Amino acid sequence: MSDVNIPAADQSSQGDPAKAPTILIAEDNDVNLKVLEHYLANFECRAIVAKNGKDAVRLFYRNDVDLVLMDIMMPIMDGLEATRKIRTLERKRGGKQTPIVAITAHIRPADQHVCIDAGMNDYLSKPLKKNDLTHRMKIWAPHLHENTPRQPASA
């Protein structure tokens, strides 16, 4: 497990990083994780990372998470089982349901139904495309603010 701060394009305009929306990334592949972190750098958020489903459930339980990006195939506990456990925790807490977006190389429509049946809200296929992730972020976490690129100062 690790905690990764996704830097804002303009640190001076960012509020308290501890109050930034939190995204839980459950991904065991280091390359895919780096791609996700790179794409998430476009948003003012804090990312926490789990390398397996068991750690994802533990991190979810210990943190106020705004969005979960969940790989399906992970060691120890897969993303489907982790999602079911997260949904059980939410029911016990009696609180809101956190959006969970599946990220997987399985792209058949039947695979999408398996993800939805497990309690996930949406589905992204690998290899991940930046525009697809950005679109899902705007749907499932509209309160996350996208960093705006700095405009060069005019002379």
Automatic annotation (TrEMBL):
Entry-linked Pfam families: Response_reg
Keyword field: Phosphoprotein, Two-component regulatory system
Domain Response regulatory: 22-141
Residues modified as 4-aspartylphosphate: D71
PROSITE patterns, sorted: RESPONSE_REGULATORY (PS50110)
Keyword Phosphoprotein in record: yes
Entries under SMART domains matching the protein: REC
PANTHER family associated with the record: HYBRID SIGNAL TRANSDUCTION HISTIDINE KINASE J
Name by which UniProt lists this protein: Response regulator
